[in-house]
C-alpha cells in the first residue's frame, strides 16, 4: 500500500512558527511504524506541490498532521484537494488538535480522525483498509459517517516507549538541509519522554497524554542520538528533568560514548533549583540552551495559571544556569487584561535580567484545554487562524491597536541589538548558514514588530 503523510504549510499566522522549520517528528515516527508499506512524507512548508505528488506517487491512503489549531482550515483544504483528485482514497487526520477536538474534522472530505498516539492505530487502520475489514473494531478512531462521528473504543497509551519504532528520518532526507530553529542548523528534533505530571490550565500536552508520563530508557535515548546526523538537537519533552537520575544517566552515556552534539531542552525552574548538581553534568555532555516557562513576573498571576511554581524558582534557576554557561530562553504569557503599566513592567523585567530572545505569547485558550472550557464563552473570535499565540482572541482592556503596539514593543525590547551584545551577534553570524536565511529571519523579525500585521489578521475573512 502506498501511504502519503502530509505536514501542512507554515504560511499562516505569525509568532514562533516564523522562527523555525522543524522536522515533522510525529509523521516520521508514524512512518517508522509502517515498515511493510511504501511511505512518502510531503512537507508542504518546503515543497508546495500537492497536486504533482498525488499524480506521481498515486497514494492509496493519506494522513495529515494537524497538531496546531491554526492548521485546521488548511488541513480541511488539503483533504478537499485529495478527494478532488481521487474520491475513493481514504483520508485521515491526526495530531494534538485533531485528537482533542475531533469534531472540527467532521468534514465531507475527511474519513476520520486518529485520536491520540498513532504508532499503533495507523498500522491497524492500514491493515484493515487493505483487507476490507470493519474500521469500527479499531480503537482510537473517530469515523465520519453519514449520521455523525462514530467513536471507537479509546486506545490505551503505549506502555513502553522503548518499543516505539525509530523515526523514519530518511523519508525527509530531501528536506533536512532546510530544517532549523532560529540560527541553529543543521538541526534535528527528538523526544525522550511523553507527558507531564503538572496541570497548567493553558497546556494541551497533559490532556493529549491523559495526564500520564512515560520515559524512554537512557540506552534507547542514546541509540536515537547516535543515528541523528545533525549537530543541533532539540529535545521536545515538556520537562527533560522529569526524572533527574535518568537525565544524569543520559548525560553520562553521551560523555562516555564521545557524542559531540549540542542539545537544547525544556525544563521547569523548580526542577533545576532542586537539583542544581545535574546542570554542570548536562553542560559537559553538550546541553547548552534551556527553555523555561517563566510565564509571569508576579506570584498571584502565576498561581492563576495552575503552574505550581514560583517567581523565586525562576530567578534562582536563571542564576544556576548562567553560572554554568547555559543560555536561557524564558517564555512569558501576556494577558489580554494587560495595560500600559503591565507591559512596561515586563519590558523592564526582561531588560534587568538580560533575557535575550524571550518567548512572548498572548494567553490563548486552545480547544481541548482547561482554559478553553473556562473561557470559550468570552472569545471574541472563532477564527482558528488567529489561535497562533500572538493574536488576542479574548477581550483586551486596551484597544486592539494599542494592545498590539505594546506587544510589539516587547519584541523590540527582547530582540534589540543592545540585548544581544557583541558576543550574541557573533554567534548569530557564526551559525547563520546562508545570506538568504539571514534575510528571511530579518523579514520574520520585522513582521513580528509591526502592529499592523496583527490587526490585519482580525480583518481577514475566513474562507475554507
Short description:
By secondary structure, this protein is an alpha/beta fold.
CATH homology superfamily name of the largest domain: tm_1862 like domain
Task: Report the biggest beta sheet as strand number plus sense, adding barrel if it closes.
Answer: 7 strands, mixed
- Which segments are poorly predicted (pLDDT under 50) over 5 or more consecutive residues? 417-424
Mean pLDDT: 91
Query: Distance N terminus to C terminus?
Result: 30 Å
Rg of Cα set: 22 Å
- Percent helix, as a range, is 25-40%
Q: What is the CATH class designation of the largest domain?
A: Alpha Beta
Inertia-based shape: globular
Give the neighbour order of strands across the main sheet: 3-1-4-5-6-7-8
Separate helix tally = 18
Which class of secondary structure composition applies to the elements? Answer: alpha/beta
Number of strands: 17
Q: How many domains would you count in the coordinates?
A: 2
Give the DSSP E fraction (strand runs of 2 or more residues): 15-25%
The CATH topology of the largest domain is pyruvate-formate lyase- activating enzyme
CATH architecture heading of the largest domain:
Alpha-Beta Horseshoe
Can you give a write-up of this model?
This protein is α/β, with parallel strands linked by helices and 464 residues long. It has two domains: 2-147, 3-Layer(aba) Sandwich (Rossmann fold), CATH 3.40.50.2300; 168-459, tm_1862 like domain (pyruvate-formate lyase- activating enzyme, Alpha-Beta Horseshoe). The chain is 39% helix and 16% strand. The chain has helices at 25-32, 50-57, 72-85, 96-100, 118-131, 205-208, 218-227, 244-256, 269-274, 278-285, 299-304, 311-323, 340-352, 370-375, 400-414, 417-431, 435-448, 451-459, and strands spanning 2-7, 20-21, 38-43, 61-65, 91-94, 112-114, 141-145, 148-151, 180-181, 187-190, 193-194, 214-215, 232-235, 262-266, 287-295, 327-334, 359-362. Strands 3-1-4-5-6-7-8 form a seven-stranded mixed beta sheet, sandwiched between helices. Strands 10-13-14-15-16-17 form a six-stranded parallel beta sheet. Strands 2-9 form a two-stranded antiparallel ribbon. Helix 7 packs across helix 8 (244-256) and helix 15 packs across helix 18. The relative contact order is 0.10.
Amino acid at each position: 500500500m502506498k501511504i502519503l503523510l502530509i505536514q501542512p504549510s507554515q504560511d499562516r499566522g505569525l509568532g514562533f512558527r516564523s522562527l523555525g522549520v522543524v522536522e515533522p517528528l510525529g509523521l516520521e515516527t508514524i512512518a517508522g511504524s509502517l515498515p511493510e508499506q511504501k511511505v512518502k512524507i510531503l512537507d508542504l512548508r518546503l515543497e508546495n506541490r500537492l497536486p504533482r505528488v498525488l499524480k506521481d506517487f498515486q497514494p492509496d491512503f493519506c494522513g495529515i498532521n494537524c497538531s496546531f489549531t491554526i492548521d485546521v482550515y488548511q488541513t480541511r483544504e488539503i483533504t478537499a484537494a485529495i478527494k478532488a483528485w481521487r474520491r475513493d482514497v481514504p483520508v485521515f487526520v491526526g495530531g494534538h488538535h485533531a485528537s482533542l477536538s475531533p469534531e472540527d474534522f467532521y468534514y465531507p472530505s475527511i474519513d476520520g480522525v486518529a485520536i491520540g498516539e498513532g504508532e499503533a492505530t495507523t498500522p491497524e487502520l492500514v491493515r484493515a483498509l487493505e483487507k476490507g475489514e470493519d474500521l469500527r473494531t479499531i480503537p482510537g478512531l473517530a469515523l465520519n459517517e453519514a449520521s455523525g462521528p462514530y467513536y471507537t473504543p479509546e486506545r490505551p497509551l503505549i506502555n513502553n516507549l522503548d518499543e516505539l519504532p525509530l523515526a523514519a528520518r530518511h523519508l525527509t532526507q530531501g528536506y533536512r538541509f532546510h530544517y532549523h530553529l532560529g540560527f541553529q542548523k543543521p538541526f534535528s528534533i527528538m523526544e525522550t519522554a511523553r507527558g507531564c505530571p503538572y496541570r497548567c490550565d493553558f497546556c494541551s500536552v497533559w490532556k493529549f497524554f491523559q495526564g500520564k508520563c512515560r520515559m524512554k530508557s537512557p540506552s534507547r535515548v542514546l541509540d536515537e542520538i547516535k543515528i541523528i546526523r545533525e549537530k543541533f538537537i532539540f529535545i521536545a519533552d515538556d520537562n527533560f528533568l522529569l526524572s533527574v537520575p535518568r537525565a544524569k544517566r543520559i548525560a553520562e552515556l553521551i560523555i562516555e560514548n564521545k557524542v559531540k552534539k549540542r542539545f537544547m531542552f525544556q525544563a521547569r525552574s523548580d526542577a533545576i533549583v532542586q537539583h542544581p548538581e545535574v546542570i554542570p553534568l548536562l553542560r559537559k555532555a553538550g546541553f547548552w540552551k534551556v527553555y523555561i516557562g517563566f510565564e509571569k513576573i508576579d506570584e498571584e498571576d502565576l498561581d492563576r495559571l495552575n503552574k505550581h511554581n514560583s517567581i523565586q524558582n525562576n530567578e534562582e534557576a536563571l542564576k544556576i544556569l548562567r553560572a554554568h554557561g547555559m543560555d536561557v530562553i524564558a517564555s512569558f504569557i501576556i494577558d489580554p487584561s494587560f495595560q500600559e503599566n503591565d507591559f512596561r513592567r515586563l519590558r523592564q523585567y526582561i531588560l534587568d535580567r538580560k533575557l535575550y530572545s524571550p518567548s512572548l505569547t498572548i494567553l490563548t485558550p486552545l480547544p481541548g484545554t482547561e482554559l478553553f472550557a473556562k473561557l470559550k464563552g468570552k472569545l471574541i473570535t472563532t477564527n482558528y487562524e488567529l489561535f497562533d499565540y500572538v493574536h488576542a482572541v479574548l477581550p483586551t482592556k486596551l484597544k486592539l491597536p494599542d494592545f498590539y503596539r505594546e506587544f510589539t514593543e516587547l519584541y523590540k525590547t527582547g530582540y534589540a541589538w543592545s540585548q544581544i551584545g557583541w558576543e550574541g551577534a557573533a554567534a548569530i553570524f557564526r551559525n547563520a548558514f546562508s545570506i538568504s536565511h539571514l534575510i528571511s529571519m530579518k523579514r520574520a523579525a520585522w513582521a513580528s514588530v509591526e502592529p499592523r500585521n496583527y490587526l490585519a489578521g482580525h480583518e481577514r475573512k475566513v474562507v475554507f
